[in-house]
Amino acid sequence: MTISKSLQAPSSVVMVRPHHFAVNSETFDNAFQSATPSSADDATRAYRELTEAADILRSHGVDVLLFDGEDPRTPDCVFPNNWFSTHTGGHIAVYPMMAPNRRLERRADVLDMLKTNFRVQDVMDYSGLEHDGLYLEGTGAMVLDHVDRIAYAVESERTSQIALERFCTHFNYEPMAFRAADAQGRAVYHTNVLMCIATEFVLIGSSMIEQTARRDEVLQRLSQSGRSVIELTEDQISKFAGNAIELQGASGRILALSETALNALDADQKALISDSATLVSLSIPTIELSGGSVRCTIAGIHLTPRA
């Protein structure tokens, strides 16, 4: 059977197994993050959760390139999608991070592996923008439509308009920034908790986009792409239902999301997703204490493998 490939769904990913996981005291602007300090057992549980998640993805035919995060100074290393992204044509971007201890997550060995195993033309390093207080935390700050070349981005301290426009100019994306907040008025810290763009559908909590005109514009652009728009409630967003990622498996596309997120979806939403991709849930409740879920743990590889 021939499996059709999608620009939106990578078949290879980078994941980082944390050895010193903890709720990061430097990132409490994240309303999704637990206010309860980490227990001594959280690091062990998070290590096990990520290991099992990688095994499940591999069982579906996803090529998981697994690294170990052994630096005790990097409690959030399990979220590599924030510090780098990869792009068709052989391009890599390295991003400026707001929290000082998250900047330590950038790793030369990951970039060297990508250069060895995939065709890489260049690496665009934006990390120097940190010195000017300008941040753009990768595919957390942006949700990229790789087909229509649009970078959707919630405005926040972690998403500098200057850095966003610079990325979009270099990588040929159209920036579409907007403000989003919850019912308490707390700003959404990363775009990838609000929305997920797959090949044939979109998950989005559009009710959290503050400006009506901008909300309508975002929804119009998503609909024009030909995708089905699946609306998520604010409660579903709080349970990470938007923090999912479509991947290419051996037998077709899958939608990887957490067990928490899957349980938050209703039957009609699951049916719409299942028409296009197989739902694959990963149990990562400890990791979710840090305010990120499955999408945050996965850095997709949109590069051509070497022979």
TrEMBL record:
Gene3D superfamilies: L-arginine/glycine Amidinotransferase, Chain A. Keywords: Plasmid. It comes from the Bacteria. InterPro entries: Amdntrnsf_FN0238. This is Arginine deiminase-related protein.
